[in-house]
């Protein structure tokens, strides 16, 4: 039962190695000039792919198959009025932890975040025709950094996990959720074995009211109550919606009738502009958010509850 599992997760929460310094280091790299906004197919994007793969290996996150990379071609959005087609070769970066239960290890929770952004600007930029690095510190270097930190911590607890956990850094989300769409159409495991997908997109700007927003909590039984209960011993002010499924990579899973959660810390004026930079990230807030998500996944991975999919409006 979820309520029993809360006692277990509280017993391990003090062992967390989620670190503000490491979160900073990840975002510092992901927003550096040398990766130039992480646009699909660029040398900067390829450097990010290698960085994520290296961090997975360092954190003892295993390959799901023969390689960490799931390559695909992304059809890029063109400026308004421009005709033709532009395609970039990019990839999802995927790792996993195998669960320990003889039966439940065949069920998977997916934790995801997109790593791409707008490069030097694109049709999605809110800075008009400005040609400048769009650093994307919150969108979504924050989610990518959280993915790496949470994965590392869960790997430290792998002997205590019943279900298996897949970690996906999605490519080309800004081009129309292309990485997650490719994943669900070309999954290395049957989609019926994925019981829940949790997505982090813009989790680096926790406000003064400590608002953490989530949608989709009603897509699995008792989800809203459970997500609220997980925050009872935290400083977070949880805004939990049963529906509200939309806007990021978890949508691709929801369309395949997989339960989802989408988490973020809210919008801001720097969204899709060059000013979305590391100096505006709330790292103490990010640590709280990461700890909450880690505890949530640890609990759900060890729960005997049924994750029956519930469609929402």
Can you tell me about this structure?
The protein has 313 residues and is an alpha/beta fold. It has a single domain, classed as Zn peptidases (Aminopeptidase, 3-Layer(aba) Sandwich). The protein is 31% helix and 18% strand. It is built from eight helices and nine strands. It has helices at 2-13, 20-30, 43-58, 137-156, 178-185, 223-229, 250-254, 283-301; strands spanning 62-63, 69-75, 87-97, 108-114, 164-170, 194-200, 211-215, 237-240, 260-264. Strands 1, 2, 3, 4, 5, 6, 7, 8 and 9 form a nine-stranded mixed beta sheet that branches. α4 links the parallel β4 and β5. α1 (2-13) packs across α8 (283-301), α2 crosses α4 (137-156) and α4 (137-156) packs across α8. The protein is globular. The model is unreliable at 1-15 (pLDDT under 50).
Quick summary:
The protein has 313 residues and is of the alpha/beta class. Helices cover 31% and strands 18% of the residues. Strand 7, helix 6 (223-229) and strand 8 form a beta-alpha-beta unit.
CATH fold node name: Aminopeptidase
In CATH, the homologous superfamily goes by the name: Zn peptidases
Structural class: alpha/beta
Shape: globular
Number of helices: 8
